[in-house]
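Lab manual, section 2.4: Encoding a predicted structure.

Procedure: take the sequence of the chain (96 residues), apply the prediction step described in section 2.3, and record the output as structure tokens. A sample record is shown.
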Amino acid sequence: ERYELCRSVHAEMNALIHASRTEMIGATLYLACLSPTTGHRVSGVRPCKICSRMIINAGIEWVVADGPDGGVVRYAVQDWVKEDRGVWVEDNMHGY
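Recorded output:
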């Protein structure tokens, strides 16, 4: 994904930076994206791996985003914890 090369702070990161810890625990984060070229909403958005891990660490419980079919998708952040296996290679036995 190479998101660490991005020149800007992602919207999710910016929201987490400016919210207090007590406001985030058990909270729901709403995520939408507008195309910079057309101004239209982009469907099928989901946080990148780095933002997902920041959301997990912040204690947010749900993420609601524009779904791939134009509807809304509700992600349980706890499922991301179960799905995230990190990077597993012989030289990195800890999974991160």
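Check your result against the sample. Residues 19 and 27 are 11 Å apart (CA to CA).
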